[in-house]
Each structure stands twice: as structure tokens, then as C-alpha cells.
Design goal:
Largest sheet: 5 strands, antiparallel
Radius of gyration: 29 Å
Number of domains: 2
Strand order of the largest sheet: 3-2-1-4-5
Shape: elongated
Number of helices: 2
Order of helices and strands: HHEEEEE
């Protein structure tokens, strides 16, 4: 009888220990996963920079009409295969690439767009500018 009780107490103690160890491993793994996930997230600014870089590398070029420049937003319109798109681009991270007086920027510019999603477009990035040099209606811009 004594050995049977001892065996049962060992098996129930072992089961409790196994459950505790399993729960601790599960919680530790979840904690590690959350930490890794939070560190791997990128900021919206970095996501926008990556979008511009990819578009610069693979985008098709076309002509666009610059409609307006307001503080950190540039509004423009362009046609792709008979469909007219009107878009805006946040240029707050690219402010140094714009002229000091944004009111002089108007007229025809170049646009780069994704051929699979023409609404994904830009007129300015870190390594490329669609703003054209010269002419009475366009800004003089430092090209890279």
C-alpha cells in the first residue's frame, strides 16, 4: 500500500512539474515572440522611404501636371493608359530637395509609377527628382 501511494504521489507531482515547466516554456516563447515582433516593425517613415526606393528602382516614367504645393504636400495628376490619376506626396522627409520658395514649382513634371498599380506613384525621392530644371514654370532643383 505504501509503495502504491508513493508512486501515485510521484506521478501527480511529476505531472504538476511537467505542466509548470510547459507553461513556463510557453510563456517564455510568447514573450520572446512579442519582443521579436515589436523590434521587427518598421516606422511609417521607413515604410514610405522603402516604397519610394522600390518605385525609383522599378517604376515606369511618365509626365504629370503639378497642381499645388502646400507645406509638406505636393499634388499632381497624370494619365496612365487613358485613366487620369490625381495624387499627393508627402515630402516632409525630402524638404531639402525642394526649392526654398515652393510657389515657383508648377508646370509639367516627371512621375514614376508602379505599372501593376498606377495609383502608387511619386515625383520626388532621395535619389531621383521629377521636378524639371529650367523653363519659366519649373523650379531649379538639385538633381542627384
Amino acid at each position: 500500500m505504501l509503495s502504491l501511494r508513493f508512486a501515485r504521489s510521484l506521478s501527480s507531482t511529476g505531472a504538476i512539474v511537467a505542466i509548470c515547466v510547459g507553461a513556463a516554456l510557453l510563456l517564455g516563447g510568447a514573450w520572446w515572440g512579442i519582443i521579436r515582433w515589436r523590434r521587427s516593425r518598421i516606422s511609417p517613415q521607413e515604410a514610405e522611404r522603402r516604397r519610394r526606393t522600390a518605385l525609383n528602382a522599378t517604376g515606369k516614367m511618365g509626365d504629370a501636371n503639378l497642381l499645388d504645393v502646400r507645406e509638406d504636400l505636393v499634388f499632381y495628376s497624370y494619365d496612365v493608359r487613358g485613366v487620369e490619376y490625381t495624387a499627393s506626396q508627402d515630402v516632409s522627409a525630402l524638404r531639402e530637395l525642394l526649392p526654398e520658395d515652393p510657389s515657383v514649382v508648377n508646370g509639367v513634371v516627371s512621375v514614376k509609377y508602379d505599372s501593376r498599380n498606377p495609383a502608387n506613384s511619386m515625383i520626388l525621392c532621395e535619389d531621383w527628382s521629377g521636378l524639371r530644371r529650367g523653363g519659366a514654370r519649373s523650379a531649379i532643383l538639385r538633381q542627384r
